[in-house]
Amino acid sequence: MSSDLINVISKNNPFQGRLVVRDQNVWGQGFPDVPSLNSHASDAVYDAVEKVRSGQRKVVGITITAERGLGKSHVISRIRHQLQVDSSALFVYMSQCSNLNRIKAEFLTTLANSLKQIGSQGVSQWQYLATALINEAFNKNYTSQQLINQFPGALAKNPKVVEVLRDKVLGIKPDLENPDIITAILWTLFPDPAYEIFAIRWLAGNSLPQVKADAMGLANVSADDKEAESFTTVRQILNLIGDYKPIVVCFDEMETDHCNEIGYTGRQVTAIFAKDLYDKIKRGVLLTSIFPDQWINEVKRLGNADSVVDRIGEQVIELKYLNSDDVINLVSRWLEEFYQENGLTPPHELYPFDEQKLRALGKERPIVRKVLKWCADNFKLPGDNGGIGLDIHPVEPAYNQQISALETTIQDYMEDKATLAQALRLGFSAVIGETIENVQIEKVVDVQVKAVDRGYLDFKIVGKENGKDVKIAVAVLQESGGLFVQATLKRLIDYRKFDLTRGCLVRSKQINKGAAKAQKYLSELLSAELSGEWVLLKPEDIKPLLALHFVMKGRENDELSEDQIIDFIRKKRIGIDNYLIGEILSDPSGQVPEDAIDEENESGNITLTEVANVVSVASDDLFQE
Questions:
Q1: DSSP state letters, 229-298
Q2: Rounded Cα gap, residues 284 and 277, in angstroms
């Protein structure tokens, strides 16, 4: 046996921390796949896509049921990657909802973020759609990359080129209710990342700085209308896609530890929403993944269960437990990838495992996760009884995976008030009993509010500072502008109404200097009288708390307990040393953060001169008829 092989096996465990398929595995590099495992489920989805594509069906609803760890998300990851290869459909993936009372708005955000993922032609799914719209409108056959390359030149020639394109596209889409949707989709072709980000943010239902909205020809939607408008926008986007390709919309488990305001669980809210999608979209496949008991005891017990099940459960597919051959195929595939990545040739395809032990495991008809966990626990050289990584905290592999994923996805969450607030709250919950910045933290609670005040203040920290009561309300506020900013600040300074001693704004961006009332409330918050605080939100500071939040949400999949996660946070000092937690508790500075992002001037305004400086105008103007 080579020393290289011994060294690699001694220092690496390809199974450790990889028991659970996470969002990044669905969109990016997936786990090693054995296509024969539960192929009946993935084949059913491919068949449904083909029926929709060929016009035999308009919409198909498929529900996959399986217990935890049997491989639902592995199948979904396989489906996503196959659709990316064969270009037969676009793909949307939703696995969480932070606010069940606003699932329409959250799905719109999910839709926007899903479509920014790379599709089959090396460009985003948004850019594919923009290209399809232009090609139909102009009766051309351009590739997305051609349009991306030529966009700056066309804009330099004609600063109103997006309006020209939009009007041309509207000529073939006369029934579209909101022309701004076309405008924003077209902006995704502009190669300046800042403007693509703003376009996708708008498509996700978020407001833009007014100067950016004006420059891009987009009208901001009021925060009060967001939930009502979101489903209308979702329907229009999905129907635009349906004119060119089917779309597969996947709801994966959608577990939550809370209900909406009328008592429905996350699975019930999701099922009702999926049923509404089924009724409204032109062409697509709705794929729902759920545990069998939740399908029976939650979805099938809805008041309108028949109409829901008839749509999203046209086909109900059960996943199968593994047999001995399946176990051998699964483990050999994982090991094959591991040895290929390390340029090694093992003594046999299952090394360092014993085939008979794996076959014995297969006779128990295990779930996928049990097999992978067994491999993680037993991946060691023959004669080595120590195994690999036994001294690692059980939470660490899952935490490290989430940190790694956030390297590329954190911007998806920087506008997500609910997720950011939940991450911060978890961090504070883990330091209850500690004294940080002279504040002894006693508890973290909801701010008691009436219906009219709901959704503005995220939580309250209760404790003692130098023997005096401290009650700090925290409001994460990432809206770019509009009445929501004003309304949040108004509540954050009402100490008497909400029983506060301090208000703390957590925000990454400047507040529009032209928003007079918002600026007035901000000045009051930061005044010596109220001693409020503005803590600057930066991705690098919230990242560890976001990672912990996602680990906590997925703890059952990772076979972790809440106590283990809190223990990990404490032992690693992730909460007590976190900059945001320290700043929220520290003596208020009364200052507006100097580094707050100036969105109105970020990347500058698009001008003819600036564009002409970086790109020569193409001789072949792609946007001329």
A1: HHHHHHHHHHHHHHTTS-EEEEEE----SS--TTS--HHHHHHHHHHHHHHH-SSEEEEEEE-HHHHHHT
A2: 10
Query: Which two tokens mark 98?
Result: 């932070």
pLDDT in tens, 295-339: 999 999 999 999 999 999 999 999 999 999 999 999 999 999 999
3-state secondary structure of 513: coil
- Given a cut of 80, whether residue 603 has pLDDT beyond it is no
Q: HSE of 162 in the Cβ direction (CA atoms, 13 Å)? A: 24
Name the pLDDT band for 165 (thresholds 50, 70, 90).
very high
How far apart CA 474 and CA 461 sit, in angstroms, is: 8
Among candidates 111, 113, 60, 105, which has minimal Cα distance to 282?
A: 60
Mean of the per-residue pLDDT values of the chain: 91
Q: Rounded CA gap, 594 and 612, in Å?
A: 32
Average pLDDT over residues 460-472: 96
Lowest mean per-residue pLDDT among 213-222, 377-386, 508-517, 523-532? 377-386
Give residues with Cβ within 8 angstroms of 543, minimum separation 6: 403, 406, 410
At 90, phi and psi to the nearest 5? -90, 165
118: which DSSP letter?
B
Whether the CA torsion 345, 347, 348, 350 is positive or negative: it is negative
- Residue 170 φ/ψ, nearest 5 degrees: -65, -25
Q: Which positions ≥6 away from 24 have C-beta within 8 Å?
A: 401, 404, 405, 408, 409
**What is the token pair recorded at 525?**
């918050």
Distance CA 92, CA 286 (A): 10
Fill in the amino acid letter for 404.
Answer: S
Give the burial class of 396: count Cβ atoms within 10 A of its Cβ; 0-12 exposed, 13-18 middle, 19 or more buried: middle
Q: Please, is 29 exposed, middle or buried when counting C-beta atoms within 10 Å of its C-beta (0-12, 13-18, 19+)?
A: exposed
227-244: per-residue pLDDT in tens?
Answer: 778 999 999 999 999 999
CA distance 304 to 300: 9
What are φ and ψ of residue 77, in 5° steps? -60, -40
pLDDT in tens, 143-156: 999 999 999 999 88
